Amino acid sequence: QVEWLKNEEPIDSNLDENIDTRADHNLIIRQARLSDSGNYTCMAANIVAKRRSMSATVVVYVNGGWSSWTEWSNCNARCGRGWQKRSRTCTNPAPLNGGAFCEGMSVQKITCTSLCPVDGNWEVWSEWSVCSPECEHLRVRECIAPPPRNGGKYCEGLSQESENCTEGLCIQDKKPLHEIKSQNIETASDVALYSGLGAAVIAVAVLVVGVTLYRRSQSEYGVDVIDSSALTGGFQTFNFKTVRQGNSLLLNSSMQPDLTVSRTYSGPICLQDPMDKDLMTESSLFNPLSDIKVKVQSSFMVSLGVTERAEYHGKAHPGTFPHGNNRAFGTIQARNKATYIQNLSSISTMSELKTTAIFGHLGGRLVVPNTGVSLLIPHGAIPEESSWEIYLAITQKESSLQPEGTDVLLGPEVTCGPSDLSVSTPFALTIPHCAEVNSEHWNIHLKKRTQQGKWEEVMSVEEETTSCYCLLDPYACHILLNSFGTYALIGEPISDCAVRQLKVAVFGCLSCNSLDYNLRVYCMDNTPCAFQEVVSDERLQGGQLLEEPKLLHFKGNTFSLQISVLDIPPFLWRIKPFTACQEVPFSRVWCSSPKPLHCAFSLERYTPATTQLSCKVCVRQVKGHEQILQIQTSILENERETITFFAHDDSNFPAQMGPKAFKIPYSIRQRICATFDTPNAKGKDWQMLAQKNSINRNLSYFATQSSPSAVILDLWEARHQHDGDLDSLACALEEIGRTHSKISDITETEIEEPDFNYSRQNGL
């Protein structure tokens, strides 16, 4: 007797017409169904004994299929150019048991244009009508020049006017109309006469009182004060006329300087090249430059803290710089603030932004120190018994990639190579970016430079493709690639709300004149490599970081950037005339530039004994975000406390080879891959692993890999190169139900290889 078992349960072909076991005791499944998945065993028995075959596992998989497209969404712009989108899901049917994921895009976007509202406007008045029996004639107008359209406002005012047309010939209440008018005119003339006399009397009284007070003041103090700062906009010495005899007072303390002076000048204020060591002179400030407007407030007003703007305290963006230092300051003589000064000794010079190392079959990691750029070579990507010299570099000269229109370069241009090598497993390239990630405001593209020097698009971040994969984090983009080359990220703003994150930093140094102190305010991309470039240039000029840099959200709404110096201590410091506030056009801030934008301010001490500087630097976008940096520093280097700025100083390990380069031990990695690469009827496979690691799109890329779980873990390694949070990964595995203990505990109890000592020493 021969019978078949499915999952240790006997199969009855009489109950299921889809299964036939009669033909030579073979098991025939006529049409594969999901319910047919399972372990099948053949069992033969006679009077003497029973024999069982080895189990055969049958997995019925289902390839995914796209659902229908949704309707196009409404245009997101109420007026002008915008976009609309539609989407579909891979649920018709959903892929099961390792079936292929749908190929193609899940989201489509197209541009759209909304009609702008047009307000109505009056046409010219018509000619006057014929005089009516009521002694009036009319004229009219219509709201048709243009008429209101698309919800625009209707014209304001009257559409009809009337007036008398007989010049007094009409009879009103049995009197000639001209007699009634003459009586009204006489009454109006009397009112005007009395009003004029009253105003004259009041004016004479005010004049007498003013002359009396002036003469009394002259006889009491005998001095006239001329405040030249009210005329020039800067601090100047006071000039006094000859003191009259018998008066011991030199200055009338009750007299207040004129704080209302405000002027607008044009001049080459903002400098683009930070290597220019020569600060502007007063004569250069008056050279015309049409595209820069500088609004100057009186320096005397600013130094006393008398301004019309309210004081805003900007909130720094979390996760970028050290926080938690709540500081309160007294007078300059009482307390000295520990400023945020960059320790420049550990920062690489701009000629060293390249890292090279030799890698083998075990893989490793390359890092350009303190730039946020890294390259992860997975285990097995390089053939056994082979070793390659691989390099990672950042382009320092002006990029050959010139964005079109309002497109911007969001990060550095990165080269990895040699370009003629190819790997069997995708490597992970990490490039920092400065965009505030939002798919409704940005369309971000990855581009690659060809051997002919031209740039071609590799993919859009939102695109579904199997050639490569892009994962966009808030501050970096992690890219899975199979070929080396030169890559860059380009951002296309699709709305005015697109935000480019700028880092604002203030540096200072003494000038050749011992009484002058130079402040340089930088607005650069919020990427570590952009800041390192500024730090390297400032080191050559002897500059010091004066305050913790802050994050400014600069919108693509065409409004300019304003930088001003406020609250300079009076009688201790003064600022050069016409430089208290500087304005930079939108195009110079938004468009990519090989050198970071900076503005220079020159401050002058009254005496060499002044060694402390306290002021505020305000950086704001018109109708946008604002940040205020509180400067409290000593201008003497030996009194300044220094701290290291970079939160992750990776200059000590630019290259790591073998197991030490990875956070997940290799044996644990193998167990995870063996578990999740195997299809499972309950859906607990690599797709669930991707979902728990916030990888929710373009899953078709992983489906084409020989080990999808391994590629997902490589992407996890690239994202967590600094924290190495194995506990979060273990929690994700526990949620899936594959493991019941944390990876960090396993590595301490089960792994005894000496290669992992480095991980345990670092708390992993």
Describe what you observe in this structure.
The chain has 764 residues and is α+β, with helices and mostly antiparallel strands. Among the domains are: 2-58, Immunoglobulin-like (Sandwich); 354-493, Chondroitinase Ac, Chain A, domain 3 (Sandwich), CATH 2.60.220.30; 501-634, Immunoglobulins (Immunoglobulin-like), CATH 2.60.40; 663-737, Death Domain, Fas. α6 (666-676) crosses α9 (708-719).
Structural class: alpha+beta
Number of distinct beta strands: 41
How many strands, which pairing sense, and closed or not: the largest β-sheet? Answer: 7 strands, antiparallel
End-to-end C-alpha gap: 58 Å
CATH class category label of the domain at 354-493 = Mainly Beta
Gyration radius, in Å = 39 Å
Total helices: the number is: 12
Mean pLDDT: 75
CATH architecture of the domain at 354-493: Sandwich
CATH topology call of the domain at 354-493: Chondroitinase Ac, Chain A, domain 3
Strand content: 25-35%
Share of helical residues: 10-25%
Which ranges are low-confidence, i.e. pLDDT below 50, for 5 or more consecutive residues? 173-178, 219-351, 738-764
What would the principal axes of the Cα set say about the shape?
flat
